[in-house]
Amino acid sequence: MIEVKDIHKSFGDAHVLKGISATFEAGKTSLIIGQSGSGKTVFIKSLLGLHTPEKGDICYDGKNYGNMSTDERRYLRKEIGMVFQGSALFDSSTVEENVMFPLKMFTNQSKSEMLERVNFVLNRVDLVDANNKYPSELSGGMQKRVAIARAIVMKPKYLFCDEPNSGLDPRTAILIDNLIQEITDEYNIITVINTHDMNSVMEIGEKIIFLQHGIKEWEGTSNDIFKTDNKAVTDFVYSSNLFKKVRQAYLMEDKK
Amino acid sequence: MNYLEHIGKYFLMLKQVFKRPQKGKIFRDSLVRELDDLGNKSLGISAFIAFFVGGVVAIQTALNVDNPMIPKYLIGFATKRSIILEFAPTFISIILAGKVGSFITSSIGTMRVTEQIDALEVMGINSLNYLVLPKIITTIFFYPFIISIAIFLGIFGGWVAGELTGLFSSTDYIDGIQLEFKSFFYVYAMIKTMVFAFVIATIPAYHGYYVKGGSLEVGRSSTRAVVWTSVTIIVLNYFLTQMLLS
C-alpha cells in the first residue's frame, strides 16, 4: 500500500500541492484527474521521489520514503515501473534494448534469459516484430506499449502512468487503458494513473482522486462520479454534452 | 541563479558522478560508446587543424625571421616549441570544447527535456554517474592521445609547408626540431590536456543535465556550455602555465 499524508510542494512562490493525502491499494487502478495545472504531474513525481515535498510523508508499505537511505530508495525504485507522458524511451536504443535495459542493469540473467523475458513482455503488450526498431520508427500507441513493457519487465509492485493515452486515437487509448487494467489485475500491483481522459475515468477508474488548485477536491469510484453533486467535479467531468447525456442516462437507469 | 550557486551545484554534481558504477558491464559498454563518440570522431578534425596550424606557424616564423644573423634552424625549433606548449594542447582543446562540448550538452539536455533522465532515476539508476562518468574517463584518457597525434602532425605540417614554399630547407627544419628537446614540455602539455579534458566533459554535462524547458533551451544551453568551457580553459591555461613553467 502507498500512503500519502498531507504533502506540500512549492516551486518558488507557486504552492502547487497544498496538503494532499491519499492511499493506493494493491490490485486497484487509481486515477488522478484534474485540470491542467492542478498539480497531477507534480503529485505523481513526488510519489516517485523525483520531487521532494517540503512537508508531509509518503509511505511505501509502511516505510517512509523521506527517511529511507539512498540505497533503500534505489532498491525501492527497482520495484517501481513508470510510463511517462512522452514515453521517455531511450531514442538511440532499439525497442529490445529499451525493454532489456532494466534487466541488464539489475539482474545477472544470461542474454537468452533476458531476451526470453523481453519477448514475453512485448508479446504481453501485443507488440511483435518490433524488437529491432527504434522509437522514432514507431507510432505513438506503439511507443506507449514499449514504455509499458519496459515498466513491467522487472515485475514491479508499483506502476505509475502519467497520461498514458494522451495524443492517442480513442481506439488505441482504450486498448492502452485495458492493457494497464489487465496488468494491474494479473500481477496484483498498485497502479496510479494521471489522466485527462474521461473515457479512462469511466472505464478503469476503480478509485478516482480529483485535484483542483493543488487540493484533493474529491475522491470516489467511477460509479460515485455519476452521483456526485460536487460542482468542481461535475463541471470538469461533464463539461462535454456527450458526458452530460451519459450521466443523465446512468442516473435514470439507477432510479429504476 | 548567481555564479556561486552554479559553482556549488557543479561540485555537488561531481559528487554524484564520482560514485562506483552500478553495473560493470554496462559501464564498459558506455565507455566503448563514448570512446567512439567523443574520441574517435574527434580525431579527424583535430588532425586536420593541427596539420594546417603547424604549417601556418612555420611559415609565419620563417617570414618573421628574415635577419641573416638568425639561423634558419630556429624556425623548426620555434614551431616545435609553439606546437607542444600551446597550439596542440590549448588550441585543439578549445576546438574540442566546441565540437564535443555542444554534443555532450545537447545529448544530455535532450534526454532531460524528453524525461529520459527521469526514467533512469525512476529505475533506481544514478543518472549522473551513468551518463557523465564514462565521458570524463574517455576524455581524460583519450585526449592525451589525440593531442600527441596533433603535436606530431603540427610539426609535420610545418615541414610540409617548408617543402612547398621553399622558405626554409628540410635539413634546417629537422635540425631545429631536434634541438634542445625537453621532455617536461611534453609532460606539461599532457597535464594541461587532461585538465582541459575534464573541463570539456563536465561543464557541458552540467549545462545539459540541469537544462529546463524545450529544444530551444537545449540549444541555448549548448551555446552557454561552449562559451563557459572555452573561458574556463583559457583561464586555467594561464594558471597552469604559471604553476608548471615558472
Summarize this entry quickly.
By secondary structure, chain A is of the alpha/beta class.
Task: Describe what you observe in this structure.
The complex is a heterodimer of chains A (256) and B (246). Chain A has a domain at 2-79 and 156-255: P-loop containing nucleotide triphosphate hydrolases (Rossmann fold, 3-Layer(aba) Sandwich), CATH 3.40.50.300. In chain A, the strands form 2 sheets. Chain A has a 6-stranded mixed β-sheet with strand order 6-7-8-3-9-10, sandwiched between helices. In chain A, strands 2-1-4-5 form a 4-stranded antiparallel β-sheet, with helices on one face. With 256 residues, chain A is of the alpha/beta class. In chain A, helix 4 packs across helix 5 (140-152). Helices cover 41% and strands 24% of the residues of chain A. Chain B is elongated. Chain B has one domain (23-245). Chain B contains 8 helices and no strands. Chain B is 85% helix and 0% strand. The two termini of chain B are 37 Å apart. Classes of the chains: A alpha/beta (256), B mainly alpha (246). The interface between A and B is medium-sized, with 25 and 15 residues.
